[in-house]
Amino acid sequence: MYFLFGKAMTWASPKDSPRMTAYPRSVTWIVVSVGGLAFFLFFASWILISYPIGSTVRLYFYGFDSSQNMDLTIYPGNQTTTIVPRDDKDVNIVVNNTPSESDLQVPIDSNGGASRDKSNLAPESNSLVPISSMDKSNLASESNSQVPISSTSPPVSLESKETKDHIAPLPALSPALTKQEDAKPVADPSKSIEIDEQISLSLPNKSNSVDVGSNDTAVSSDSKSGAGQSSSSQSGHDTKNAPVDTGCDLYHGSWIYDTRGPLYTNNTCPVLTQMQNCQGNGRPDKEYENWRWKPSQCDLPRFDPKKFLELMRGKTLAFIGDSVARNQMESMLCILWQVEAPINRGNRRMQRYFFRSTSVTIARIWSSWLVKQTSEPFDFAPAGVAKLHLDAPDDNFMEFIPKFDVIVLSSGHWFAKQSVYILNNEIVGGQLWWPHKSRPKKVNNVDAFGISVETILTSLVTHPSYKGLTIVRSYSPDHYEGGAWNTGGSCTGKTKPLAVGELVENGFTQIMYKKQVSGFNRAIKKATNKSKLRLMDITEAFGYRHDGHPGPYRNPDPNKITKRGPDGKPPPQDCLHWCMPGPVDTWNEIVNEIIRREYEGNKGFPS
After folding, report:
1. Which end is more exposed in the chain, N or C (fewer Cβ atoms within 10 Å of the end residue's Cβ)?
2. Of 225, 241, 369, 359, whose CA–CA distance to 303 is shortest?
3. 534 has which bridge partners?
4. Quick check: 352 and 397 in contact, CB under 8 A?
5. Is residue 323 annotated as a catalytic residue, yes or no?
6. Catalytic residue among 135, 165, 537, 574
7. Burial tier of 48 (Cβ tally within 10 Å: 0-12, 13-18, 19+)
């Protein structure tokens, strides 16, 4: 052994040099090699313990772990014109380049009182007024359903959440307020659901914010919204650090042009569904990115991502609902990404992004209707048609509720999709499905929406382990002018918000809004826990933003049609979702302010 070792050292020695010269040099080389190997093994072990190697490699090269089913990220070059279908309801990897949408149709059937022709609900006009009609259009899909994207395109399996509603300006409700601490619990909320109840929009004072029990809302009908003057002439100080009165009404005001521009760009946000990447898809104008919402009674602070992360330190914010919820969640991520890149910790059931500096988690769970959905045969309803159990919450996310500190809910547009309505274990109605003509429907899709809102909110305010804040975003208006999503409705060429007086009330949006508010108010009365419930009333204000949708700019195809044809027919377009950056970012500024008020009370933002 010694001989071999000595030989090896001799061979490693310079020619004609003595063995004693080579020996120390070889020992040094061996020591250095062993030390390097030990360091490498230690470092590799640390990496394996800290992160799964697959996730680490993907995160290093791509910025996210694709194995964790991320449905948000779409990078230039990896978009396709197909949608990746998922079996689970929490859709991931949504490639919204597809121009097609399929079956979301007119929300109210003949038995519901509203005509399937939405054009009858709102008068048409030649002005810049959006006359949306029932659209369910091109929503970036989210689940295993068909989404209507255009009347000229074939149905595509999207995980989408589509829709159709329009700009109906209603008296806006302020955030929920005043809770009765001594509210009596309801033994079985599901059995006390009312099918059709008149909605009272005159609610108590909006200046008293309170705990769960009763979030009373005050209605104001004398406010006006619309495009206003530039922010530079509006205020001499930066609204970012302006203190905000807890009782200030955030939902009545005007849109002000802000020369500072958006909070991010499509090039600085890696998690942005291609369908909402309007600039990346070739939209020629950019002014729609610069309009900010200015409440009449105060300033809405400009979103400061660092302060928001500090405000939410150690907490989890979850967006639950349809593709419009996804739209809002992506906006939140884009804003926060400007100060810190989060770690993707999502899975097939829930998207989760963790911000290490403050231990904040932003999550999203897909739920088309927010109530329980089954596909098995039920009574005379066959397999294959979605059955909605209107008196039971969606159990796909209820198990996670205690882990959330703030929840933002989004729903409504999927009630235009084919489905069967079940209440108290009995089929009571359906949308685009009703084989028994001789059997009258008890519930139409609008009523079903109101019942579903009451059901999900009641399940939250009576949940024994939930103590968080629930923000209900009111019905998001779409802007299909001159028709529905499948009858030539269009928002092409809209470059500025509507001015005061140009807003045309849309019947369907108005009734959906009222049903939502009614369900909200009924749920408040049933509150038994210490959670809080707030209404984020954006319907009227965003009715003015017909300029904020992708329109025909839904994919990066340089040969896509963006103008009306010789016959006057508009190209396929999305007038429901919102461009990013764009008006949807204001939703998160309002969410930020609602959370701040709950956590900090009357204190203004620190400078």
Report:
1. N
2. 241
3. 471
4. no
5. yes
6. 574
7. exposed
pLDDT band at 436 (very low <50, low <70, confident <90, very high): confident
The pLDDT of residue 510 is above 50: yes
Q: Measure the N-to-C terminal CA separation of the chain; round to a whole number of Å.
A: 75
Q: What angle do CA 390, 391, 397 make, to 5 degrees?
A: 85
Give the whole-number percent of the chain exceeding pLDDT 70: 61
Please state, in angstroms and rounded to a whole number, the distance separating the CA atoms of residues 68 and 170: 41
Give 299's pLDDT tier (boundaries 50, 70, 90). very high
Half-sphere exposure in the Cβ direction for 215 (13 Å, CA) = 31
Q: Is 552 exposed, middle or buried (0-12, 13-18, 19+ CB in 10 A)?
A: buried
Q: Any residues with CB less than 8 A from the CB of 199 and at least 6 apart, and which?
A: 514, 515, 517, 518, 521
Q: Which residue has the tokens 């900090």?
A: 600
Compute the distance between CA of residue 320 and CA of residue 237 in angstroms, rounded to an integer. Answer: 36
Spot the catalytic one: 132, 490, 577, 585: 577
Q: Which two tokens stand for residue 4?
A: 């071999």
33 to 25, 37, 38, 39, 40: CA distances (angstroms): 12, 6, 9, 10, 11
Beta bridge partners of 101: 150
C-alpha 38/C-alpha 578 separation (Å) is 54
Which member of 150, 323, 368, 459 is catalytic?
323
Contact 177, 207 (CB under 8 A): yes
**268-297 residue pLDDT tens:** 999 999 999 999 999 999 999 999 999 999
Top-confidence residue, 45 or 444: 444
Between CA 221 and CA 226 the distance in angstroms is 15
pLDDT digits (tens, 9 = 90+) for 350-398: 999 999 999 999 999 999 999 999 999 999 999 999 999 999 999 999 9
CA distances to 93, 160, 329, 368, 369 from 86, in Å: 9, 11, 19, 14, 17
Over residues 545-589, the pLDDT tens digits come to 999 999 999 999 999 999 988 888 889 999 999 999 999 999 999
pLDDT above 90 (res 409): yes
Residue 492: its H or E element:
none
Place of tokens 């509203």: 114
pLDDT higher than threshold 90 for residue 242: no
Nearest Cα to 96, choosing from 270, 271, 273?
273
Strand order in the sheet with 426-431: 371-374, 387-393, 419-423, 426-431
* Dist CA 365 CA 350 (whole Å): 5
